[in-house]
Amino acid sequence: MSTAGSETAQGAAAAASGPLKSVWMAPKLAFRNLFHDILSLAVTLTGIVFSVVLVAVQCGLYIGAERTIAGVVDQIKTDLWVTPYGTKSFDDPAFMNGREKFLVLSTPGVAAAEDLVVNFANWRKPCGGNTAVLVVGANWNTDDASFKPWNVVQGNLQTLMTPNSVAVDDTYFKDLGFDGECAFKLGASAEIMGNRVTVTAVTTGIRSFTTLPYVFTTLRRAQSWLDASPDQGSYTLVRVAQGEKIEEVRKRLASRLTDNEVLTHQEFRTRSLNQWLFGTGAGGALIAGALLGLVVGIVIVAQTLYASTKDHLNEFATLRALGASASYIHQVILMQAMISAVVGYVLGMILSLAVIGLWTSLDNTMIIVMTPGLAASLFAVTIGMCAIAAMSAILKVTRIDPAGVFSR
Fold it and tell me: How many beta carbons lie within 10 A of that of residue 17, not counting itself?
């Protein structure tokens, strides 16, 4: 008797002898069915691994894009944002009319308000050539400042108080012209809008989704370089007094600042994400890629499980003829799917982490993020994908006529 036939007989005996023994026999029979045909198993695992890697990379890119877009916004401590009308995201700046800060401070329920300057500027590289940068100017010389550059790896923020000082991120050294003969060293010089500047601090990992380098400096210096008045800002950051309701204060501000929009911190963050992820189609493309991976995985696994079940129809018919219940056979098929899911998930995650590591070493502009939550979600999706795929095989087995085994 063949191995498959022997296992079938054992499975039938287990199913007939009682539910407890049946429960222990189903995984063994499923395991033997899977590994009986190594080529078929390899095809199944390939489909699952491909699906896991594709979904992991696409979802990781989505999370990385989201973190990049909201990176600076998430570092700003504020309850409300006063913005020019029509502002679509943090990286879509325009100057307000001016004096919004004073109107905000005179509104009941407001504890503090600060102007923030964000605008495009021309950066002249130290060895020649120009590029566009995004200047961010804020007051960070107080302990309760709403915003300060973070991840400082060279110099410190106090040096930015010296004349014409700026901080840049090491991700953009090449874009800013600090390469080759002009390799970066602390104290390097360049020009912003014709004004000579000195890099006295360096951050790391502060990326812009638009790929334009951030250049951090003080509020007054940014206003001067960008030809703005001392009362003008791109945004006014508002902190609500303790005990006040944010929504009520927002309504008061909106009634006074008729030329501006007043948004909660979460509203402004969501608007920035929606603009770059869905307004540009980038998010839709990433989601479509993830869905494609799921569809491909489900189709391949379903086809393989169906083919495997079809190859073992005689064995399943024998089980039915010997008294095995339909639920027991379904249990065996689902167990095959679950074993495939676990093995495929483990292999897929190993390959995904390798791809993410390689990507990170080669490309600093777009990041792929793998979080524990994403890993857990991928496991659940893989299990669900294989369970759905197993349904086609179960439907085939359901139509088996047990009497057919006696006609062989």
Answer: 12
